[in-house]
Amino acid sequence: MIQCFFKELIRFNNTEVALDRSSANISPLNPSLVILEDWTSVLTYGKGKLYIIPAAFFLLALLMASPIILLAIFSNQSLYQETRYRLLANTLISDLIYSVVNLIITATNIAPFLFPKIMCQILLGFLTMTYYNGVLNITAMVVDLYLAVNWPLHYNSLLPPRRAIKMILCIWGLSALTPIVTYIIMSAKEDLMCAVPVCVIDMIFFLHQTDQALGQFNYFGLVIMFCSCFVVIVGCYYTLYWRTRHSGIWNGTSSRGRQTFLIHSLLFVFYLFPVIILITEKILLTKKVMNFFSLIYVTMTMSNIVMMLPKALTPYLYGLRYRDLAATIKCLIKWKTKINPTS
């Protein structure tokens, strides 16, 4: 089963090695054994175990802020009726799911046993879906702001609560499209991702896939989605700035217009950076500049630090900035203190 996995890794690296799947004896000079020893030495017995620390830390940061913000949104009817708060709640729920799944993957990667095929597929599917969801949510929040500023009198008719719910459902549908297609195709191939020693997000995009068309579908789908979101965000903000440049809302470093722009830009840059890393990985692996030993460090750093950072920042950048939401959170905290004075 291990040989099933490593044959695809070696094929991706254009190394002509024939592996006998029916044989249990593996030569010490076999490249598959070398790759296995490198990866297990990093994740199971080496410094790869330390990646559990940032994964757990960022999840803890989310758990400290996200539940109280979600409670404030869903318990206040006036907040829940606003599209921006529904989108924020959707983002926080997606980020919580992503962080929990990422911690499970990281914890299992450093454990000395193989991933079952179905377990790795499901976890990577949820991880990819929630990551796409976060990107699309950030874009939707920018579009919502664009509509609210440009057409304030028609905003409620353009984006009523029911239409906002449909938009959120569409976001989840688009986010799930790539993982579902990948899962269906991969499930049809019995020798694909059979038993794997590690489960990393790179598998979704371009590693050890016997179907090259599937790898290209995942890779270019990701690039097209990010380019589209980038064009939408830049276009919305450029139009907003052009129409409101004389209104004074951009003047001064403490203006809310400038702060909103910086928050959206910061989060989108954090979401965009992993895509740049994935593109760089693909180029380096194709050129044989990067080896599989280095790939593990890059992938674990991306999954547990780079991709987790914007998700840990979101509840604090948005939840504490919106005045109505902050006031509701304060009321909830005071109410909890009155019920339990000893806390």
The radius of gyration over CA amounts to 23 Å
Low-pLDDT stretches are 5-33
Major sheet characteristics? none
- In whole angstroms, the N-to-C terminal distance is 53 Å
The strand count comes to: 0
Oligomer: single chain
Helix content range: over 70%
What are the main properties of this structure?
globular, 74% helix
Overview of this structure, please?
The protein is mainly alpha-helical. The chain has 14 helices and no strands. The protein has helices spanning 2-12, 31-43, 52-75, 77-80, 83-109, 117-150, 155-158, 161-187, 202-205, 212-244, 256-286, 292-306, 309-319, 323-339. α3 crosses α14, α11 (256-286) runs antiparallel to α12 and α11 packs antiparallel against α13.
